[in-house]
């Protein structure tokens, strides 16, 4: 089985990459993982066979799939386990062309509420059986804080559908680094994701901004 996809997120995750995209044929979300437990991908698993380097945002690629595992991954219904084959680069897309096959999604709330996290009970109550969304936001503010390990991490606040969201963690490598500057962006598109498991310390599922597209 092979999937033709446009890459919409390649975010930091424990020294590897959480890679997600839009299926070019169905317009649906797909996340590419390396094992049944949803292990993120290493750089060597993202190498193109017909082009230098590894996959980048808005690249289109043909990816060999071992099997779909989303049915057993709680809210991660989009997960597909890849085969250990090199990826085939098909080309690149503009964001405007991606929007033609997958428009920004419209929800009353992002993953069920307007906080930066959900509890396990809320996940069940709101029936969150998905983990990737593409949305259009206003007044995006990006800022950086030091965490408990004294590492600089990026967070964001923004307006969406009449509600104000704050303290949302950013895992987009373009903004999640010590050299990134604080920014105020009037209009942007976000790829947001949810983890498959809650944080052990408090049992919360924290919302993440996996990719920021500045329009």
What does this structure look like?
By secondary structure, the protein is mostly beta strands. The protein is built from two helices and 13 strands; from the N terminus they run ββββββαβαββββββ. Strand 9 (152-160) and strand 10 form a beta hairpin.
Report strand order across the widest sheet.
1-2-3-5-4
Number of strands: 13
Q: Please describe the biggest sheet, giving its number of strands, its sense, and whether it closes into a barrel.
A: 5 strands, mixed, barrel
- Element pattern in H and E: EEEEEEHEHEEEEEE
- State the end-to-end distance: 35 Å
* Unreliable segments of 5+ consecutive residues: none
Strand content: over 45%
Secondary structure category:
mainly beta
How would you state the average pLDDT, rounded?
A: 92
Helix content: under 10%
Shape: globular
Radius of gyration, CA atoms, in whole angstroms: 17 Å
Given the structure, what is the number of helices? 2
Layout: helices, strands, pairs:
Blueprint: E1 2-13, E2 16-23, E3 29-33, E4 59-68, E5 79-82, E6 88-92, H1 95-101, E7 117-119, H2 120-125, E8 132-146, E9 152-160, E10 163-170, E11 183-193, E12 204-206, E13 208-214
Parallel strand pairs: 3-5, 10-13
Antiparallel strand pairs: 1-2, 1-4, 2-3, 4-5, 4-6, 7-12, 8-9, 8-11, 9-10, 11-13
Main attributes of the structure:
215 residues, mainly beta, 2 helices, 13 strands, globular
Give a short synopsis of this structure:
The chain is built from 2 helices and 13 strands; from the N terminus they run E-E-E-E-E-E-H-E-H-E-E-E-E-E-E. With 215 residues, it is mainly β.
């Amino acid at each position: 089985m092979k999937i033709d996809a446009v890459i919409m997120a390649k975010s930091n995750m424990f020294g590897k990459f959480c890679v997600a995209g839009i299926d070019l044929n169905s317009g649906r979300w797909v996340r590419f993982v390396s094992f049944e437990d949803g292990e993120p991908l290493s750089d060597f698993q993202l190498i193109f066979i017909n082009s230098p380097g590894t996959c980048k945002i808005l690249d289109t690629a043909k990816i060999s799939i071992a099997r779909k595992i989303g049915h057993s991954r709680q809210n991660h219904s989009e997960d597909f386990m890849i085969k250990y084959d090199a990826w085939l680069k098909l080309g690149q897309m503009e964001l405007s062309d991606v929007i033609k096959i997958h428009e920004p999604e419209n929800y009353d709330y992002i993953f069920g509420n307007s906080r930066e996290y959900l509890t396990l009970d809320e996940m069940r109550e709101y029936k969150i059986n998905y983990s990737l969304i593409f949305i259009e936001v206003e007044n995006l503010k990006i800022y950086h804080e030091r965490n408990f390990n004294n590492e600089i991490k990026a967070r964001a606040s923004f307006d969406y559908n009449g509600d104000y969201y704050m303290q949302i963690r950013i895992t987009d490598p373009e903004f999640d680094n010590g050299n990134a500057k604080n920014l105020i962006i009037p209009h942007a598109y976000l790829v947001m994701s949810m983890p498959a498991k809650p944080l052990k310390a408090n049992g919360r599922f924290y919302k993440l901004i996996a990719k920021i597209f500045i329009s």
